[in-house]
């Protein structure tokens, strides 16, 4: 038992039973419906990175109940997740389905598949608005150690899918708004 469990209580048996070591049919369906995930990694010193990943539903391929194939799309070229995986193969994924309050969490060991890998041949740029860089540079093979459906309290608390808030943000805090704020802030450092 960890410190927080000693202080605040242990999870119920129902919660413990949710933790699976492989994907069941419902989890596979959830991943196939998810157009967005966040991947967390950490290096051997425990320094963390969380990276958004997106594409058309099913962009993360379920190879079987124990393995996922995640495209590593061309992006900002920082490769922080891959750098972390060089010294610590553990990765965590949280899958989101728009409008759904639940998320699916998957934890496991990741292997970077370089260009030319047989598994990588199965990956295609499955994105909605492709640009000239929309291609998988390499792939990440995730060997699942733990998977579970996570309740939607945090999404309800944040009203992440509230359509009124989405419309307001689109009108007042669009991508261009944040890009201008970033450019302004970067110029002042």
Short description:
By secondary structure, this protein is of the alpha+beta class.
Rg computed from alpha carbons, rounded to a whole number of angstroms: 18 Å
> How are strands sequenced across the largest beta sheet?
2-1-5-6-7-4-3
How far apart the termini lie comes to 45 Å
| Assigned CATH architecture of the largest domain | Roll
Kindly name the structural category.
Answer: alpha+beta
Going by CATH, the homologous superfamily of the largest domain would be: Electron Transport, Fmn-binding Protein, Chain A
3D structure, described in words:
It is a single chain. This protein has 2 domains: 3-158, Roll (Pnp Oxidase, Chain A); 161-189. A hairpin with a 5-residue loop joins strand 1 (36-42) and strand 2. The chain is 31% helix and 31% strand. It is globular and about 50 Å long. The chain has helices spanning 3-8, 13-18, 25-33, 80-87, 153-158, 163-172, 175-187, and strands at residues 36-42, 48-54, 61-64, 67-73, 90-96, 103-113, 136-150. The protein is an alpha+beta fold and 189 residues long. The chain starts with a helix and ends with a helix. The chain has 7 helices and 7 strands.
What is the secondary structure topology, with strand pairs?
Blueprint: H1 3-8, H2 13-18, H3 25-33, E1 36-42, E2 48-54, E3 61-64, E4 67-73, H4 80-87, E5 90-96, E6 103-113, E7 136-150, H5 153-158, H6 163-172, H7 175-187
Antiparallel strand pairs: 1-2, 1-5, 3-4, 4-7, 5-6, 6-7
């Amino acid at each position: 038992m960890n410190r927080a469990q000693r202080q605040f209580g242990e999870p119920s048996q129902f919660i413990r039973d949710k933790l699976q070591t492989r994907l069941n049919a419902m989890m596979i369906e959830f991943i196939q419906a998810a157009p967005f995930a966040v991947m967390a990694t950490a290096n051997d010193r425990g320094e963390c990175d969380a990276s958004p990943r997106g594409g058309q539903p099913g962009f993360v391929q379920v190879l079987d109940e124990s393995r996922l194939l995640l495209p590593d799309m061309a992006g900002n070229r920082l490769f922080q997740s891959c750098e972390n995986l060089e010294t610590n193969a553990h990765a965590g994924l949280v899958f989101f389905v728009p409008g759904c309050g639940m998320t699916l969490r998957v934890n496991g060991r990741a292997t970077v598949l370089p260009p030319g890998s047989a598994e990588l041949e199965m990956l295609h740029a499955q994105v909605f608005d492709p640009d000239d860089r929309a291609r998988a540079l390499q792939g990440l093979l995730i060997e699942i150690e733990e998977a579970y459906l996570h309740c939607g309290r945090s999404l309800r608390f944040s009203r992440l899918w509230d359509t009124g808030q989405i419309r307001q943000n689109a009108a007042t805090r669009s991508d261009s708004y944040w890009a201008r704020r970033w450019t302004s802030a970067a110029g002042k450092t």
